[in-house]
Design brief:
The chain is of the alpha+beta class and 187 residues long. It has a single domain, classed as Lipocalin (Beta Barrel), CATH 2.40.128.110. The protein contains 2 helices and 9 strands; from the N terminus they run H-E-E-E-E-H-E-E-E-E-E. Strand 6 and strand 7 form a beta hairpin. It is elongated and about 55 Å long. 26% of the residues are buried. Residues 16-22 have low confidence and may be disordered.
Length: 187
């Protein structure tokens, strides 16, 4: 709980700083994160288009917050089980990331193009925090950035348990895709 409060505080602080600072800030309130799990019996996919994210381009600091109940599944029963049994959305309503684009100086924000990016930080899901390092891309499009990354996460790293009766239905690893369009904050 202490880590969650710290991350929420950091996100709030960055949001406030975003509104007051002169540095290059980018933000979105409708980024997209999806996940995919492929098991022998069933494929599970969900999409969330209500991701809040802030990037401070001067420092590379990057945070995002995901409301867990905003993941949409093809089957309503999967969505219900996800929220009630696995991620316990009422108890742990958000997933968060707080970190940094470590090679931000190599991304030319004044020239349109696609640049490799490495993001490192702390991912918190189900009140469990894990250090991650992910390779992706930042595409510069005028005054906007499109951040893309794909990585795998183990459910056990976030203490998300699978009942023995469903162990063959759900993969122990999920593939997470981040696709976030960030607009430059007008000064």
């Amino acid at each position: 709980m202490k880590n969650m409060k710290k991350i929420v505080c950091i996100f709030s602080l960055l949001t406030v700083v975003t509104l007051n600072a002169n540095a290059q800030k980018y933000l979105t309130k409708n980024g997209m994160i999806s996940f995919y799990s492929d098991a022998p019996i069933e494929k599970i996919e969900a999409v969330n288009r209500q991701v809040n994210a802030v990037l401070d381009a001067a420092t590379g600091d990057f945070v995002y917050r995901v409301l867990m109940k905003s993941f949409v599944f093809e089957k309503a029963l999967m969505q219900e089980h996800f929220n009630e049994n696995y991620v316990e959305s009422d108890k742990y309503p958000n997933a968060t990331f707080a970190g940094k684009i470590t090679n931000m100086k190599e991304i030319n924000l004044s020239k349109d193009g696609v640049y490799p990016a490495t993001v490192e930080g702390k991912l918190t899901i189900h009140n469990e925090t894990k250090d991650i390092s992910v390779k992706g891309t930042i595409e510069v499009k005028g005054n906007a950035l499109l951040g893309r990354a794909k990585f795998n996460a183990l459910l056990s790293d976030f203490k998300i348990s699978i009942p023995n009766t469903l162990v063959n239905n759900i993969s122990k690893t999920i593939e997470i895709t981040v696709d976030i369009f960030l607009e430059k904050l007008k000064q």
